[in-house]
Amino acid sequence: MQHHILIPPLPPQRVPMVLDTDTANEIDDQFAVVHALLSQDRLQLEAIYATLFLRQGDSPAKGLDESEAEIHRLLDRLGVDGSGRVHRGADRFLSEELSSVDNAASDDLIRRAMEARDGPLWVVAIGALTNVASALNAAPQIANRIVIVWLGGQPQHREDAREFNLYQDPVAARTVFASGAPLVHIPCYGAASHLLTTTAELDAYVRPQGAIGEYLSDIFRDHSAQYPGRSKEIWDLSATGYAVSHSWVPTRSVARPILSEEMRWVATPDDAPLAPFAEAHYVQRDPIFNDLFVKLAEFHSGERRAGFAD
């Protein structure tokens, strides 16, 4: 017997959402955080959750500290007050013995999901899924009150699903995929990998836009060696881009997979409960970058404000 396929709802005209981000892990989360804060016409951003990550020689807790500090650096450059809107996530990854970690971000997610009255809360996750999985395991009833958009992993047609956001906490990824919560999965290669930009492009359209533009341009330039033809993905803009306009990140209706111990996508058993799922198969880089660049220019000129939902 083959599963019927349930499709997640599309983002509403104004999306009530929280953003879960390992902000200091690389340089792409910063662009997505700024994009979300500048998109008040489309995104009702209620909170930002700092997510842990692990660098060689450090600890997940140190990654969490760095993510939280980076969120506040971005808010400072945008002149945005983050009081009560930035929450620390879990300081440990999940394991078979540890299904949930007490943390402020997961608690806030549960509260906001349960208080949502005009449709589901959208959870845009651009790091390891530890905070989201902790919330789902602590309060399984929120699965029917949220929609998750996750940038991470690889598409189902690839033999190996592993990617940084996924292999940092595979237990959390398995939890989310098995939770029953509506899920839009944006894989890296073949989808978010289209979001390439260059130092020259950022110098032209981002650097002139005040303190935040200089900061984004600097971290991009300093991330890796520059040479003629050098470009780099800003992966995480795919998730905020989807929330702003789902047409920019086209998805297909496919069967929802499960993640094996070998970090491969495998078919869900026929007797498993149905759960809404869609997988992105492409990302239109031009309208997403245009949207960010225009909003940065409008912010710098005073035509647009940045901030959280009122």
Give the H and E element order: EHEHEHEHEHHEEHHEHEEEEH
In total, the number of strands is 12
Helix content: 25-40%
Rg estimate, integer Å: 18 Å
**Largest pleated sheet:** 8 strands, mixed
Low-confidence stretches: none
Please give a structural write-up.
The protein is of the alpha/beta class and 310 residues long. The chain is 35% helix and 16% strand. The chain contains ten helices and twelve strands. It has helices at 28-37, 60-78, 104-115, 130-138, 164-167, 170-178, 199-205, 210-223, 237-244, 285-301; strands at residues 15-21, 43-50, 86-88, 121-125, 146-151, 183-186, 196-197, 232-233, 251-252, 257-259, 265-267, 277-280. The strands form three sheets. The chain has an eight-stranded mixed sheet with strand order 3-2-1-4-5-6-12-9, with helices on both faces. It has a two-stranded antiparallel ribbon with strand order 7-8. Helix 4 (130-138) links the parallel strand 4 (121-125) and strand 5. It is globular. It starts with 14 loop residues before the first strand and ends in a 9-residue tail after the last helix. The model has no long low-confidence stretch (mean pLDDT 96).
